[in-house]
Design brief:
mainly alpha; two-stranded antiparallel ribbon; 2 strands
Amino acid sequence: MARTEGVVAVEEQVVVSGGPAGKANDWGAIIGGALGAIAVSIILFTAGTGFGVSTVEPWSFANRAPETFAIGTGIWLIVMQWLSAGFGGYLAGRLREKWIGVRTDEVLFRDTAHGFLAWALATVIVAALFAVGTGIAGTAAAVTAEPGTVSEAADAAAAMSQKALEAAANFSIFTAISLLVGGFIGAVAGGLGGYHRDAV
């Protein structure tokens, strides 16, 4: 520290946490955000079943026919995806390691990427669990069914009505829209979480 004509010059040191030389992604924050998103999805899915707006009963193998898919169910799927993606993305951005002395646009990109990756990981895990659960349920139903019942079930599946096909198509469209917007919301929420982290 040097003193010149009443002006005090102080040497400033910047401590960089993370930074360009550090890790570009924080998998702990991503996994934490994904787990948070999955937990919120389970809560909302169960609530939707209780309210009667879900086409699938998560704790039962005897689910409703696809003809029962309605607009209310589609809206609930979208809301459920958006809320869980927003929560998981925000959590991932907020928990990511803080960088000091790095350009603002790079920090924003990393935060949004962490939010998006948390959403993507949660989506892949839920899809895998759903596929495994559906496979187990189908195998159990085929094993416990009587020989005549299996052939009748195959005939009934082959003769699926046009209404059921339209309901399945609507379900797919609503799910695709929900997932696309959910990824965007997860990324934006990650940026928001990073902004709040840096504001502390």
